[in-house]
Amino acid sequence: QVQLVQSGAEVEKPGASVKVSCKASGYTFTSYDIHWVRQATGQGLEWMGWMNPNSGNTGYAQKFQGRVTMTRNNYISTAYMELSSLRSEDTAVYYCARDLSYSFDYWGQGTLVTVSS
Amino acid sequence: QSALTQPASVSGSPGQSITISCTGTSSDVGGYNFVSWYQQHPGKAPKLMIYEVSNRPSGVSSRFSASKSGNTASLTISGLQAEDEADFYCSSYTSSSTVVFGGGTKLTVL
User: What is the C-alpha to C-alpha distance for residues A32 and A81, in angstroms, rounded to an integer?
Assistant: First the structure.
């Protein structure tokens, strides 16, 4: 069965960076794009960007351009999302999700990133 | 890219039908057949309910249906059940090669 398993919760200080991982199983990792979506507590979903694991090509929401980097390691079927220059407003649950025609059919369990001094 | 517009809340009684709207522009909802709907229960990851405007993934109840007219997409839930109570989000592909979500709609089953 398809699974996306994310890394554990993180606590970071303002100005620092965080890197969240997303390990895929149950399908051919390089055959589907991976997207990242975040959700602040009590707020809605916010799309951050996508990555093609086969080519490494990426596309980011304008809001995160210059601060986010999405990468992968195909040998271990794992995608990564790194967000830099963290501020308190970046406190949120971060999800990875598999692409199905610009929708997201499988989601990771979410990773809580807390930014606090 | 502005978020798609959804009503903040809708409600209905068990057995009734409800419809949630999702309004965008010709650069997103109106321009592409890549509108999706998600259900999210508290503390859980979102679940895909509809993709490509009106397609249901395997395992999603036929009580969920969706359509699009112009710049507005709609999700209809028929035969409301208590377990349908959740937050619902629409999303769309955009002309900027990005994805945009709606603000979310809280469904209350009375």
Answer: 16
B99 closest CB neighbour out of A47, A95, A109? A47
Q: pLDDT at position B2, please?
A: 80
Nearest residue to A83 via CA among A33, A37, A16: A16
Chain B interface with A: residues with Cβ < 8 Å: 1, 3, 32, 34, 36, 38, 40, 45-48, 51-52, 57, 89, 91, 93, 96-104
Task: Taking residues A64-87, report their average pLDDT.
Answer: 97
Q: Do B101 and A102 touch (CB under 8 A)?
A: no
**Pair of tokens at residue A33:** 């794009």
What sign does the CA torsion over A44, B96, A62, A36 have? positive
Q: Using an 8 Å Cβ cutoff, are A78 and A59 in contact?
A: no
Give pLDDT, residue B79: 97
Q: How confident is the model at residue A95 (pLDDT cuts 50, 70, 90)?
A: very high
